[in-house]
Amino acid sequence: MAELHLVHLFFAFLAGLCELGSGLGILYTVSASFLVGRFFTRPTVAPDDFPPVTVVKPLHGDEWHLLEHLTSFVEQDYPGPVQYLFGVHDERDPAIKAVDTLRARFPDKNIRLVADARLYGPNRKIANLVNMLDRAEHDVLCFADSDVRVNPSYLRHIVGALQQPGVGLVTSAYRGLNAPGFWPRVSSALTNYHFLPGVVTGLSIGRARPCFGQTIAMTRATLQGIGGLAQFAHHLAEDYAIGEAVRRSGLSVAIPPFVVHHACVEGTFMQVFEHELRWSRTIRAADRMGHLGSILMHPLPLALLAVLFASGNPFACAMAVLSLIVRVALIWQTDRATGERCSGLLWLPFWDVLQLAIYVGSFCSSRVLWRDHRFDVDEDGLLTPSVKSEPP
User: Alpha-carbon dihedral of residues 344, 201, 340, 170, nearest 10 degrees?
Assistant: First the structure.
C-alpha cells in the first residue's frame, strides 16, 4: 500500500508539473498571438537609392521547384543593377540545368555560374559561398539559399533596411512552403506555427538574437570587417555565428516585417524528424538558455501529459481544451499577419506532440544529419565528422 501511495504521489507531482508548464505555455501562446500581429503590421523602409547588388546562391542538386525559386530572385522589382552568382561544388551538379534555363529565359540578366570543389571545413554551404565571392561585382551582397522563394519587392525591402543607421546585416523571417504530400505539410506546419511565432516573440521581448541563413544581406565592407566567411566553415549554425560577429563589430542585425518562403520537402517521418532535430540542436547550440525556456511553446502536449498522469482529472482536461483553443488562435493570427492560410488544422495535436518529441530529443545527443553526412556538435556549436558518417 505504501508503494502504491508513493506511485500515486509521483504521478500527481508529474501531473502538477505538466499543468504548471501548460499554464505558463498558454500565457506564452496568448502573448505570441498579440506580438506576431504587431510585428508584421510595422511598415517596411523604402531605400534612399538603389545601389548595385550581387545575389549569391549556393546550389546542390535538382531540388523541388528549384527553377521557380531562382526565378523569384531574378524577377525583382529593383531598378538598380543586380548580378546573380550561382555556385556548385561539382561541375556535373544537376542544379546547373536550372541555371542554364535561367540564362536562356533572361538573356539580359547578369547571371554567372561558379563550379569550385574547394572545401574549408565540414560546412559545405560556407565553402560554396567563399568560392563565389571573388566573382562578386558589387558591394552589397545578398546570400540566399537555393530553396527560398521571395516576393518581387524583396530586394527593395532588404536594401531599405540595410541603409538604416547602424545596421550591418539584414536577415528575413520565413514560412514553410510545402511540397505535395502529408509529411511536407507537417514540416511546413512546424516551421509556421512553432518556429516563426517563437522567433517573433523572442525578438519582441529582446530575448532572441537570430540571423537566418535563408537570406542574409550585408555590404562587402561589413563582411571584411568581421573577417570574411571562411572562419565559419566549422559552424553548424553559421548564420547565427555570422550575426553575432556583426553584432560584436558594433553593428545591428535587422529583420524587416515580412517573410520569405523556405521549401519543406521532407517526404517521410524520419526525414521530418531528422531535419527538425537538426534545427532544434542548432538552436540549442546557439542559445542554450533560450532553447531550455522554449518548453513553454508546448502547452497542448504538456496538458495532454497532465491528463494522462492525473487519470483524466477535470482540471487537466480543461487545461488541454484551453491550450488547444489558444494554439488555434495563434495559428489564425500568424496566417492573418503573414497573408497565408493554414491547411490540415485537424492535425494540430499531432504537430504539437511531434514538436515536443523533437524538443526532448534535442537534449539526448549532439549528433546531426546534414545532407547525408553525420556530424557531432561540440559545446561551441562547431562541427566534427562523426565516426559513423557516410562517405561523401
Answer: -130
Question: pLDDT at position 230, please?
Answer: 94
Q: Under a CB-based contact definition with an 8 Å cutoff, are residues 156 and 77 in contact?
A: yes
Closest CA to 154 of 174, 138, 132: 174
User: At which residue does the C-alpha cell 525583382 appear?
Assistant: 76
Exposed (0-12), middle (13-18) or buried (19+): which is 264, by Cβ within 10 Å? buried
Question: Using an 8 Å Cβ cutoff, are 262 and 214 in contact?
Answer: yes
Please report where in the chains the cell 505538466 appears, as a residue.
18
pLDDT of residue 265: 93
| Domains by residue range for the chain, with CATH | 2-40+287-385 (no CATH), 53-284 (3.90.550.10)
Q: Rounded to 5 degrees, what angle do the CA atoms 162, 209, 186 make?
A: 100
Residue 369 grid cell: 544529419
Record the cell numbers describing residue 315, joined without a space: 482540471
Residue 272: half-sphere exposure toward Cβ, Cα within 13 Å: 23
Residue corresponding to grid cell 521530418: 272
Would you say 249 and 222 are in contact if contact means Cβ atoms under 8 Å apart? yes
pLDDT at residue number 347:
92
Angle at Cα 257 formed by Cα 251 and Cα 263, nearest 5°?
A: 100
How far is the CA of 198 from the CAs of 7, 194, 291, 362, 380, in angstroms? 36, 6, 11, 17, 23
Residue 227's SS3 state is: coil
C-alpha distances out from residue 305 to 16, 278, 310, 327, 352, Å: 10, 25, 8, 16, 12
Which grid coordinates are listed for 192? 509556421
At a CB cut-off of 8 Å and minimum separation 6, what does 226 contact?
242, 245, 246, 248, 249
Q: Which residues contact 13 (CB under 8 A, 6 or more apart)?
A: none
Q: What is the pLDDT of residue 252?
A: 96
Beta bridge partners of 262: 148, 176
Tell me the C-alpha distance between 61 and 274, whole Å: 19
Determine the pLDDT at residue 344: 83
385 vs 364: CA distance, rounded Å: 18
* DSSP-assigned letter for residue 235: B
Residues of the chain with pLDDT under 70: 1-5, 7-8, 365-392
Diameter over CA atoms, the chain:
83
